[in-house]
Amino acid sequence: MVKVKFLGHAAFLIEGSRKIVIDPFLTGNPKAAAKPEEVEADLILITHAHGDHIGDAAVIARRTGAKIVAMYDVANYLVESEKGITTIGMNYGPTEIDGVGIIQVPAWHSSSDGIHAIGNASGFIVKLDGKTIYHAGDTFVFKDMELFSELYGPIDVALLPIGGHFTMGPREAAKAVDLLKPRKVVPMHYNTWEPITADPEEFKRLVEGKTEVAILNPGEELVL
Ligand code: NI
Ligand code: MN
Questions:
Q1: For position 219, what pLDDT does the model report?
Q2: Residue 17 Cα, ligand 1 centroid: separation in angstroms?
Q3: What burial letters (b/e) apply to 166-202, b meaning 16+ CB within 10 Å?
Q4: Do the strands 184-188 and 157-161 form a parallel or antiparallel pair, or are they unpaired?
Q5: Which residues lie closer than 8 Å to 89 by C-beta, 6 or more apart?
Q6: pTM of the predicted structure, to 2 decimals
Q7: Measured in angstroms, how far is the CA atom of residue 1 from the centroid of ligand 1?
Q8: CATH of domain 3-218
Q9: Ligand 2 centre from 180 Cα, in Å?
């Protein structure tokens, strides 16, 4: 059994034989469902260097000993700016870490500390205990999402941004569902602040009959 718990914004805890945290932005996140000191992790995946994704990664990594997995450049940036953490820098492609299949895939977005570019933005496909989870990171929709299901599918759950402004909105995310063909989808990266306001029910209507939409409130989880 693999549980996918929404921690708010783009932060998720994937829990099976390993605990994997993705984009743990909790401090300063008005929708955070946990405090960084409450989060247990073996691996922490970071999709890009923006503050609402790196978040509390270093704090959690120091306390738990979790390894931070990120784009090579983002990993190096973290090592330079933080003490006492272990990182695994990678690029787009497949790898296996501690028995977990991790495929870092492209995302159409920027990656920076707000001013200086740091690597490229990404998403992750995680293969844990026979389940396949796709976290899109921050991205616009793109046709190559088709490859993700062809190469690594079937995708048990896709975690897709729907907030617009910085990422896909509901309409673009519905097109992503067509390309990814996930069994379930969880909308994320919306209603955290003003510019990323979106109605998850609108997204649900747009993908009616194509996939099962689980609208999770922060703190809620999906069992795969
Ligand atoms: Ni971003
Ligand atoms: Mn973001």
A1: 98
A2: 29
A3: bbbbbebbbbbbebbbbebbbbbbbbbeeebebebee
A4: parallel
A5: 70, 71, 72, 73, 74, 75, 76
A6: 0.98
A7: 30
A8: 3.60.15.10
A9: 21
Q: Are 26 and 56 in contact (CB under 8 A)?
A: yes
Q: What's the confidence (pLDDT) of residue 52?
A: 98
Q: Which residues surround ligand 1, an ion (CB under 5 A)?
A: 50, 138
Counting ligands in written order, the one closest to the CA of 121 is: 1
**Residue 212 and residue 158: Cα distance in Å, rounded?**
10
Amino acid, res. 148: F
Mean pLDDT per 10-residue section of the chain, whose length is 224 residues = 98 98 98 97 98 98 98 98 96 98 98 97 98 98 98 98 98 98 98 97 98 98 98
Measured distance CA(125)–CA(14) in Å, rounded: 12
